Amino acid sequence: MTNDELSTKSLTEEKNLWAIYLKARRISFNSFNFWSTALVLVLVIAQYCVLDITLDEKLKVVREFSLVAMGVVVSVLGFILAGFTIFATISQPDMFVSMSKHRHEVSGLSYLKHNFFIFMRVFIYYLIYTVFCLLVIVFGVKGGLVHKIIILSPISCKISEWLVGLAYVVLYAGLFFLLVQLKSFIFNVYHSVMTAIRWKALQ
After folding, report:
1. How far is it, in rounded angstroms, from Cα 21 to Cα 14?
2. Please, which contacts does 184-191 make with residues 24 or more away whose CB atoms are closer than 8 Å?
3. Distance CA 74, CA 97 (A)
4. Which 8-state DSSP code applies to residue 16?
5. Sign of the Cα pseudo-torsion (202, 12, 27, 32, in order)
6. Which residues of 112-122 are buried (b: 16+ CB within 10 A; e: fewer)?
7. pLDDT attached to residue 2
8. Residue 12 DSSP class
9. 196, 90 Cβ separation under 8 angstroms
């Protein structure tokens, strides 16, 4: 980690969300979030394996859930965007400048980027999940483009089963992952607001 990351120029170094995500990977996950999501992932896989319904019925479940999940996630995305706006508005510019000059011990980022990247990482997760839901809704239609490509394969039944299973696991386990991220996001907004107030009180 070089001191260049604490320079004023580095504040605008990231030019897109992908660049932010790459650096945000330095920030470790909350252990509860990680292990609870891993547990739910295993349970969802087990649930799919024991489902005693046809592949068409499984696909119907996936399509319907993707529609509901997309609506929920887009609504929550608006909520967390408002929370981030509150944090950015109530905080003092002098505090942000001071945070940008000190390095976080674990991630190696400045405290400013460390705190902001935690928020931005959640936004990115929600956007990725929303795009996945949209892809399922658009391309998970029987007779559509993906379906016609799959039936060209001699093992089309197995491919269909794996794709439906993958979508099922990602949709259900992914939604739980977003929920625990929301839990952490709410605490981070609270902690950030309290930090800003404490900073102001010490001035």
Report:
1. 10
2. 184/30, 184/33, 184/118, 184/122, 185/80, 185/83, 185/119, 185/122, 186/83, 188/115, 188/118, 188/119, 189/83, 189/84, 189/86, 189/87
3. 32
4. S
5. positive
6. bbbbbbbbbbb
7. 52
8. G
9. yes
In the three-class reduction of DSSP (H, G, I as helix; E, B as strand; rest coil), residue 103 is classed as strand
153-177: b (≥16 Cβ within 10 Å) or e: eeeeeeebeebbbebbbbbbbbbbb
SS3 109: coil
Helix (H, G, I), strand (E, B) or coil at 104: coil
CB 37 within 8 A of CB 177: yes
What is the amino acid identity at position 103?
Answer: R
Residue 136 has which token pair? 């399922």
Give the tens place of pLDDT for each residue, 58-97: 888 999 999 999 999 999 998 888 877 876 776 677 777 7
> Can you give the pTM of this predicted structure?
0.86
Distance CA 167, CA 148 (A): 18
Q: Token pair of 183, please?
A: 């839990």
Torsion from C-alpha of 161, 45, 181, 18, nearest 10 degrees: -40
Q: Which residue's entry shows tokens 């981070």?
A: 188
d(CA 41, CA 89): 37
pLDDT of residue 186: 85
Find all residues with CB under 8 Å of 177, minimum gap 6, and list them. 33, 37, 40, 125
Q: How far apart are CA 107 and CA 114, in angstroms?
A: 7
